[in-house]
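hi! just following up on the protien thing from before. the input was this:
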Amino acid sequence: MADTHLDRDVLSALQEVMEDGYPELLDTFLADSEERLSLLQKADNADQLGAAAHSLKGSCSNMGATRLAELCHELEQRAKQKSLEGIEALVGEIDGEFAIVRPLYEAERQRSLAE
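and the predicted 3d structure came back as:
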């Protein structure tokens, strides 16, 4: 199940590069993502929505949250086209995907600390 949500190769590469800083990187990603999700929910125009989606998409992509990055990309494209009909459902999907990946990253953090 986790493979559709996280790219384990990306996480392995990050752990190799970050070494002891890896758990902190995971913590930072989770905190940052929560902040960006909040911005998505508060956005009141297409430009704000697109900027928040773009920012979240980049960090998700860098951290191997593949499905979350795809959803953010879709949201970013729709915001660029000013096609906001049904956008709440897409933001809800992004929230739902984050709710799935958050515990996966938390488990990854615990695993890395136990090594």
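The chain has one domain: 2-114.
The chain has five helices and no strands.
cheers
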